[in-house]
Design a protein that fits this description.
By secondary structure, the protein is of the alpha+beta class. 29% of the residues lie in helices and 42% in strands. Strand 3 and strand 4 form a beta hairpin.
């Protein structure tokens, strides 16, 4: 394997790690962690759901909404990443699935399931890949009224008591 191919694999893994960190920040409602994925001068266009702005503004807006939800679950898949010639910039398209469970006086709860694509421009700054521009393409979103509801377990999603913080803190 030539050096370029090996370097691409390493850099793709670093970008994927940032994408997964973004999901963790959303589901754990961790603003500070969410800020680490976006450049300070980044732009985000999330369509009609949120006002356009910086990555930091987007994280704040999104997590303010998440704090009123019972639970959230974000999954990223089909991640395609391409680099420029000197590997200082990259583009990615990531398919996202989110299930957001809301309280409801009428039904107890309901879930909004969103399927969209995050189309990102990345730059490597000070050795770290950061999103500099994100456009979200909303492809398929709908509401599910549950037929049967189950209690949440082993979760403390809105604070650092979540078991994942303990496990990662041990390393």
């Amino acid at each position: 394997m030539d050096n370029r191919k090996l370097e691409e694999l390493i850099e793709k893994d670093a970008i994927r790690d940032q994408i997964y960190t973004y999901c963790r920040a959303l589901d754990r409602i961790d603003n500070e962690l969410g800020y680490t994925v976006f450049a300070e001068d980044s732009t985000v266009n999330y369509g009609p759901t949120f006002p356009s702005g910086t990555g930091r503004q987007f994280i704040d807006n999104m997590l303010n909404q998440h704090r009123h939800m019972i639970s959230t679950h974000h999954v990223m898949t089909n991640i395609l990443i391409k680099f420029n010639d000197d590997m200082t910039k990259a583009s990615s398209e990531t398919y996202m699935f989110a299930a957001c469970k809301f309280p409801s006086k009428k039904t107890g709860s309901f879930t909004v399931e969103a399927r969209c694509r995050d189309i990102d421009r990345w730059e490597k700054r000070d050795g770290k890949w950061l999103i500099v521009d994100r456009v979200v393409a909303g492809d398929n979103t709908f509401m599910v009224v549950p037929a049967q509801e189950f209690e949440n377990y082993n979760t403390h999603r809105n604070n650092k008591k979540d078991h994942s913080y303990t496990v990662f803190g041990e390393i």
